[in-house]
């Protein structure tokens, strides 16, 4: 999993650099959380939160339409999503068209 060290943290304050640096210490607890989440078919509410940051589209701002929203989501949740995606790709193999992006 690639970590960009300049990425902003999500609402939980966890950065990719923190996950990478503390991977050995965090692996057990996150594997417990992820496995429990899969067993219950439920994502913890703290992983679903996001912080919306308005980013100006152009230098001169005249109204709300001059901003675009950027959602900062949990780095931990993104890691979990990547693990699930890798697992699904592994078990489906060539059954899915590589150009299929939904359903």
Automatic annotation (TrEMBL):
Protein name in the entry: Reverse transcriptase domain-containing protein
